[in-house]
Design a protein that fits this description.
Elements (H helix, E strand, L loop, with lengths): L1 E4 L7 H8 L7 H17 L1 H12 L12 H10 L2 H19 L6 E5 L3 E9 L2 E5 L8 H14 L3 E5 L10 H9 L4 E3 L3 H10 L9 E3 L4 H10 L4 E2 L7 E6 L5 H12 L6 E6 L2 H14 L6 H11 E5 L3 H11 L3 E5 L3 H5 L7 E4 L5 H6 L25 E8 L2 H17 L3 H8 L7
Parallel strand pairs: 1-11, 4-5, 4-7, 5-6, 7-8, 9-10, 9-12, 10-11, 12-13
Antiparallel strand pairs: 2-3, 3-14
Helix pairs in contact: 2-3, 2-8, 2-9, 4-7, 5-6, 6-7, 8-9, 10-11, 16-17
Length: 433
């Protein structure tokens, strides 16, 4: 990891620019390839999905094998450890409980003279959930993407995920999907899956919104279909920033930094501290701990390219650095973490204290682990129930109430030279004269 001294006069924009280069917006070389895939799926539909699955996943599927069968789901239960299934169900309850508190309801306010204003809340009709495969399998992503949609009241939820070399979906992924009530699961991954969800095929229905993380092809495909359908966000590689003072445990910090570094060679792990002693001890602990881990090669590349220890003069300066980076995951391990938290403006999820490590949020705490990355926490929020609802404004005026405003509206419309707007109001009161 690179140790960098940051003082009040330092400009961290160069560091931020380096981190932002990991975003899909910088991968122009892939855009044409992704668009070709999308166009092919739009034209050839299932036939294209079958060809791309054979090409990219080395699996030959027939049209009838694209959708997961009930028998495959039953077989998956036989392969999943019962204790693990109990843990999944426990996590599901915690995630549901948290997201139920996000639920919004329609409201209406009445005023004198026959005015009714309000807001109607409706769930989207169709949601598509993408669950990645490849370097790792993420059944937890099923919970985090599906549960908010269920709580929001989405009636139709479909899921796509790449098959393994055996032509099957990972058993735990299937079991978790079934526990969430999903029946429409398809063995399709990559940009071709996003295209299928966006435009529909003979087998996969078109949806209104696509959510879920994925590789660069998935991210760029979501970006390409946005506008034709809605999406949650353009997700980049995972990241963590830990803000720590001299009271923090270096071994805990090292373990948490490594927990993100193992995701991907492009993952970023950053420690911001005002203690040089803590910084040096964290380096020692990382060097010791990484030899015990299964994804050592990946995390070493991640730390070498995007791992930083930033030394600051004070925790307040560290807060400024953190707000500028706007991390996906922010851990605050200081003497007074709650006080520090009040100064944070930009972060996807905030973990307070040494016993609130980031993996707690990935699996069991309840808040969603689908979070804004690459600085987008400055304007995006975690995935939630709001992502699956639509809001409609309700307006009802009586003749008397409209009369009181009609001259104002006419004058306003005339000022914009929208005479038809003005006429729409005038015709309602022309008999009065």
């Amino acid at each position: 990891m690179q140790i960098v001294k940051i003082d009040k006069n330092s400009d961290i924009s160069n560091l931020v620019d380096t981190l932002l280069q990991r975003t899909p917006n910088y991968y122009d070389d892939y855009i044409k390839q992704v668009q070709n895939i999308i166009n092919d799926v739009k034209e050839r539909k299932d036939e294209a999905l079958i060809d791309f699955t054979q090409r990219f996943d080395q699996v030959k599927l027939s049209k009838n094998e694209i959708k997961v069968t009930e028998e495959e789901i039953k077989e998956a239960y036989d392969k999943v450890d019962s204790d693990l299934l109990d843990i999944v169900r426990k996590a599901k309850v915690k995630i549901e409980t948290y997201h139920m508190k996000q639920k919004q309801y329609s409201w209406f306010d009445s005023e004198e003279k026959g005015i009714l204003l309000g807001q109607k809340i409706s769930a989207v009709s169709w949601a598509g959930v993408y669950v990645p495969g490849g370097k790792a399998v993420y059944p937890s992503s099923v919970l985090m993407n599906v549960i908010p949609a269920v709580v929001a009241g989405v009636e139709n939820i479909v899921m796509t995920t790449p098959p393994g070399k055996d032509g099957k979906v990972n058993p735990l992924t299937l079991v978790v999907a079934n526990e969430c009530g999903l029946k429409d699961i398809y063995k399709v991954g990559g940009a071709q899956a996003i295209a299928a969800l966006a435009y529909g095929t003979e087998t996969i229905p078109k949806v209104d919104k696509i959510v879920g993380p994925g590789n660069i092809y998935v991210a760029l495909a979501k970006k390409a279909v946005y506008g034709h359908v809605n999406i949650d966000s353009i997700a980049g590689p995972s990241e963590i920033l830990i803000l720590a003072d001299e009271t923090a445990n270096p071994r805990y910090i090292a373990a948490d930094l490594l927990s993100q570094a193992e995701h991907d060679e492009l993952a970023s792990s950053i420690l911001v501290t005002d203690s040089e002693e803590v910084a040096n001890k964290v380096v020692e602990e990382i060097n010791a701990l990484k030899n015990e881990l299964s994804r050592k090669e990946i995390l070493e590349k991640s730390l070498a390219n995007y791992g930083y220890i930033l030394l600051v003069d004070s925790i307040d300066e560290g807060v400024k650095v953190s707000n500028e980076i706007a991390p996906e995951h922010l851990e605050i391990i200081t003497k007074e973490p709650f006080m520090v938290m009040t100064k944070i403006k930009n972060a996807g999820a905030i973990f307070l204290g040494e016993y609130s490590p980031e993996p707690l949020g990935d699996y069991m705490a309840g808040p969603n682990h689908v979070l804004p990355t690459n600085g987008t926490a400055k304007f995006f929020s975690p995935l939630g129930v709001d992502d699956f609802i639509k809001k409609s404004s309700i307006i009802s005026y009586s003749r008397e109430a409209l009369y009181e405003l009609h001259e104002d509206i006419i004058k306003f419309a005339d000022s914009e030279q929208l005479t038809a707007h003005a006429k729409s109001i005038k015709v309602r009161f022309e008999d009065d004269k």
